Each structure stands twice: as C-alpha cells, then as structure tokens.
C-alpha cells in the first residue's frame, strides 16, 4: 500500500507502508543494560519538584528585594513538609 506524500511533488515522494521486504538483522544487539540502582517512584520525583516549585519563586522574589513573600513561601513549604 503506497500513501502519497502531500505537496507539489506527490508523484516523486511516496511513503511505503508496510515495507515491501524486511531485511534480516545482520548485527547483534549489544549486551543488555544492568537494572537501575534505584526504583523511580512518585516520591522520588515529587520531592525535587516541590523544592523547585517553591525555591525558584522564592529566589526570584528575593532577588527583586521583597521580604514578605519569600518568608510566606518558606512558611508554606515548611507546613507542607511537616504534613508530608
């Protein structure tokens, strides 16, 4: 089955689906990779995400010279860490 490529050169460009003939594999697969040293979990992804979510705005606000908003972010972050 041949699907023409849209455009002015549709006669010259065609996509072959499925491939007419599959070539046999002439190379061997590399050695299998060893398993990860740790399991990727939600907690493992959530912790740096929360730190970045509070740390980046705090850094920006502090850089702008604000005092109250970074302190509030510290308080909220501390409460979330205490609850978790």
Automatic annotation (TrEMBL):
Tree of life domain: Eukaryota
Protein name: Uncharacterized protein
Organism encoding this protein: Auriscalpium vulgare
Taxonomic lineage of the native organism: Eukaryota, Fungi, Dikarya, Basidiomycota, Agaricomycotina
């Amino acid at each position: 089955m041949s699907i023409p490529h849209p455009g002015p050169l549709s006669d010259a460009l065609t996509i072959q689906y499925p491939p007419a003939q599959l070539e046999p594999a002439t190379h061997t697969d590399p050695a299998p990779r060893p398993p990860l040293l740790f399991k990727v979990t939600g907690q493992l992804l959530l912790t740096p995400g929360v730190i970045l979510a509070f740390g980046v705005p705090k850094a920006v606000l502090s850089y702008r010279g604000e005092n109250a908003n970074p302190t509030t972010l510290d308080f909220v972050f501390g409460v979330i860490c205490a609850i978790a």
